[in-house]
Design goal:
The protein is mainly beta. Helix content is 10%, strand content 39%. It has three helices and 32 strands.
């Protein structure tokens, strides 16, 4: 067959394809015009056009959302930087929408009336993501709604009252049990191996006074117990699984043999519910590390299953920058550490926006005296970055992910991303109640006042009192 004959055949095929496509399109138009839902097919009332609804940090717009009765559909768009969803109270819920994503949520047939919709991601409703859905009766125009009137006096009062409810000032808002308790070995074997016991279970956990959640825990606490090890320690960890699903433990930031890495089924069998499993490794080097599930970590970890591990001690394996001048600040030749603290950040799961498993006003307060040097290990177990800010006390960053920095640096606000660890030092220099919080302000404040990721240092001078209310005057 010649080239001309082949080309002629191809041209003819292309013409036939185009004609067929045209005829199919024409049939489609006829069907779409003539199929009006009557006659032989039946079917329910046609849905109204989806009503646009914007989600952001932390708001739902418009509020109220005005729709006619019948089949209600909402065209959701996430205009924020975090994942959001939308749920009708006791009704359908959308997918979790990433930033920039959109989805149409079908709420089904709704009669005229007022309904509540909200973001069902933990902590977001509390932060202000709740709105009214105003459904108008057939033949009636949706209500105009009233222009929002901001009651600044109420906002002032809410903020003042919420702050004085801080558990450090008002014991009615304390919750009792705290996480991060140091775990002592259950036994020490003849060769010096330290044996620790962890039980994974769903446990009632009070994130703040009056709010109890079904947390996923190690040894009944959030965060889980703190494993403080020495370099060279031989370690066994017996895990008992009382969860409704399988689990494992990954030793994030530790060097372990492959078979101890805690990633089922690659390195070990899944620890099924009701079973136990023992990990064994040597803490071979200094570390600021953490342990958490790898199996369905998206469920187990943000809901509470997380614990801190430190290997070695400050001033020895993790050196302190004594006697150095950093950023123009001359550091003393000795820096005795009065307190070493894990600070675990969370923003998701049933725990929600929290510091060390607690939300304001029930966050743990920290107390010290003027002159004390404090070491804090930040851990982020959440899904967002958290810029952690100390009032009054600049933070000297000395290690990243447990690795000592050759050039420590000063910050007053430190970004901590998911999975990261930072070690900081600071000195308590002035008496008072000094706030310590995430500087994404909607993680710590809302219309009803302070909540979530805020706590404080209560700093005193031995033998002296201070007035938390300050000494200034308003005129």
């Amino acid at each position: 067959m010649s080239r001309e004959e082949r080309n002629s055949i191809l041209v003819g095929f292309a013409v036939l394809t185009s004609v067929a496509a045209f005829l199919l399109a024409a049939v489609g138009v006829i069907v779409s015009v003539t199929d009006d839902g009557g006659g032989g097919g039946g079917g329910g009332a046609a849905a109204s056009a989806p009503v646009p609804v914007a989600l952001s940090e932390f708001a739902i717009s418009p509020d109220p959302i005005q729709v006619p009765e019948g089949n209600v559909q909402l065209a959701l768009s996430n205009e924020g930087s975090q994942a959001h969803n939308l749920q009708l109270e006791d009704g359908p819920v959308s997918s979790d929408l990433a930033a920039g994503a959109s989805e149409t949520l079908d709420l089904g047939e709704l009669e005229a009336g007022s309904y509540t919709v909200f973001c069902a991601i933990p902590g977001h409703r509390d932060a202000g993501m709740e709105a009214q859905l105003a459904v108008a009766a057939a033949g009636e125009a949706p209500p105009e709604g009233e222009a929002e009137v901001i009651d600044y006096d109420t906002l002032d009062r809410n903020m003042e009252e919420s702050i004085v409810n801080f558990s450090a000032l008002n014991p009615d808002f304390a919750t009792g049990v705290s996480g991060n308790q140091v775990l002592e070995p259950a036994e020490v074997e003849a060769d010096g191996t330290k044996v620790f016991e962890l039980t994974a279970a769903i446990t009632e956990w009070e994130t703040e006074a009056g709010r109890t959640v079904e947390a996923w825990t190690y040894n009944g606490m959030v965060p889980g117990p703190w494993l403080k090890l020495d370099v060279g320690d031989k370690v066994k960890v017996r895990l008992t699984n009382d969860l409704p699903m399988g689990t494992d433990i990954h030793w994030h930031g530790l060097d372990t043999p492959f078979e101890q890495d805690g990633v089922s089924p690659l390195t070990q069998p899944l620890v099924q519910k009701g079973e136990s499993y023992t990990y064994a490794f040597t803490a071979s080097h200094q570390a600021v590390a953490m342990y958490h599930p790898h199996h369905h970590g998206e469920i187990q970890l943000p809901n509470g299953m997380f614990g801190a591990i430190t290997v070695g001690s400050l001033g020895n394996e993790l050196p302190l920058p004594t006697g150095r001048t950093i950023g123009g600040v001359a550091l003393p030749d000795t820096m005795p550490i009065s307190q070493e603290l894990p600070m675990v950040l969370n923003d998701s799961g049933v725990i929600g926006l929290s510091l060390n498993g607690k939300s304001f006003p029930s966050t743990d307060a920290y107390a010290g005296n003027v002159g004390d040097w404090i070491a804090v290990h930040y851990y982020n177990e959440g899904n967002q970055i958290h810029p952690m800010h100390q009032h009054q006390f600049n933070q000297l960053v000395i290690a990243k992910d447990g690795n000592p920095l050759d050039q420590p640096y000063w910050v007053d606000t430190l970004n901590v991303a998911p999975g990261e660890r930072y070690t900081v030092l600071f000195q308590l220099t002035d008496p008072g109640a000094w706030v310590w919080h995430c500087h994404i302000l909607t993680h710590a404040e809302r219309e009803s006042g302070v909540f979530g990721m805020l706590t404080a240092w209560i700093v005193g001078t031995p033998g002296e009192d201070f007035d938390i209310g300050g000494t200034g005057s308003a005129e």
